[in-house]
Amino acid sequence: MKLNNISHVFFDLDHTLWDFDKNSGLTFQKIFELNKIDINLIEFLEVYEPINFNYWKLYREDKIDKESLRYNRLSDTFGILNHEIKSRTINKLSVDYIDYLCTFNHLFDGTFEILNYLAPKYQMHIITNGFKEVQQGKLNNANIGHYFTSVTNSEIVGVKKPNPKIFNHALSLANASIEQSIMIGDNLEADVMGALDIGLDAICFNYHNEKLNNGIKFVDNLLELKHYL
After folding, report:
1. Where residue 63 sits, what CATH number does that domain have?
2. Which of 83, 101, 119 is the last residue of a domain?
3. Among 101, 126, 153, which residue terminates a domain?
4. How far apart are CA 196 and CA 87, in angstroms?
5. Smallest Cα–Cα separation from 174: which of 126, 118, 112?
6. What is the Cβ-side half-sphere exposure of residue 13, based on CA atoms within 13 angstroms?
7. In order along the chain (229 residues), what is the average pLDDT of each group of 10 residues?
8. What DSSP string describes 10-64?
9. Range of the domain at 64
10. Is residue 123 a contact partner of residue 149, using CB atoms and an 8 Å limit?
């Protein structure tokens, strides 16, 4: 079903266009080699990824700060794996991770095709909760930054999705009205419900096959956005 009267398309970045899990795994492989950490990468990632997901939820809810997120997600993972590691090494790994993360820039299948399809028809924008020091690097290094008229980062606004303030800030920055705009992202709570709660239409990029409430628009592949836009 084509959506009428849409002029502005807002995208989440991580887990929506930029393949966070793949790039993160490659980053850990790199920094473990640099720091001579002898650990099975697959086992590490199986433990780390849900821990990281939960810490990001706490971070979105302002229950922890950035430094706690960066340290504790690693410390908890090594602890569960019974891998003895010094605190200073965890601190170094947390810095190295941020330094190397945007040197890997795999995108989800169909990213360039869908952006090229949308670019002549819409103004496109980014709304991200990611750290400001790496998000622009991801956009530039993945060669997709030029598609977007504006980038709204939670650290600049001072609140994170799903807080209404970040969506309203992004709309104001883009000079876009709610009625002319749509939000596309993978996170049901932060991206989709956050947008819908202020009356902004939304599409869930449901690549993770999450169970969704009836009535929520979703796609399993980015190219399926052509059905709506």
Report:
1. 1.10.150
2. 101
3. 101
4. 42
5. 126
6. 28
7. 94 97 97 97 97 93 93 97 96 96 96 98 96 88 97 93 97 98 97 97 94 91 97
8. EE--BTTTB-HHHHHHHHHHHHHHHTT----HHHHHHHHHHHHHHHHHHHHTTSS
9. 20-101
10. yes
